[in-house]
């Protein structure tokens, strides 16, 4: 079909070695996806692969994004429920106190990695540095550059 010639179901079935019923069903599925079209009584032709596949990919991407949005909403609801029950059973969980420098560094890293929109900090005390390494201006510039690339700032 990609040769640009129109064909019938029977002609296509013969050239592919598939049966007429199966070829007819396949053409209907392809037409539903926008990859082929009926051009007359019993005749079919391929649609330009660039336009047909671009439209199909765009449609699938939109479907995936909609599904992702639904999953995100469900995830938010589950997290809220978890947080409410956690605070009900352990009100002190609202505030966490960390004193171990490595635990602090791990928690800061976890928060940085989980940010989806913005993370605001008021200062940069030494506990934001990698444990065991002195603070370097270059590291701060690298971190800022990474955040900018992610669109966080």
List the main descriptive attributes of the protein structure presented here.
single chain, 153 residues, mainly alpha, Arc Repressor Mutant, subunit A, 3 domains, three-stranded antiparallel beta sheet, 5 helices, 3 strands, 7% strand, elongated, WH-like_DNA-bd_sf
Q: How would you describe the overall organization of this protein?
A:
This protein is mainly α. The protein folds into 3 domains: 7-47, Winged helix-like DNA-binding domain superfamily/Winged helix DNA-binding domain (Arc Repressor Mutant, subunit A, Orthogonal Bundle), CATH 1.10.10.10; 50-91; 97-150, no CATH class. The chain is 59% helix and 7% strand. It is built from 5 helices and 3 strands. It has helices spanning 9-16, 20-32, 49-89, 101-114, 137-150, and strands at 7-8, 36-40, 43-46. A 3-stranded antiparallel β-sheet has the order 1-3-2. A hairpin with a 2-residue loop joins β2 and β3. α1 (9-16) crosses α2 (20-32). The longest helix is centred in the middle third of the chain and has 41 residues, at 49-89. The two termini are 51 Å apart. The model has no long low-confidence stretch (mean pLDDT 83). InterPro entries: WH-like_DNA-bd_sf (IPR036388), WH_DNA-bd_sf (IPR036390).
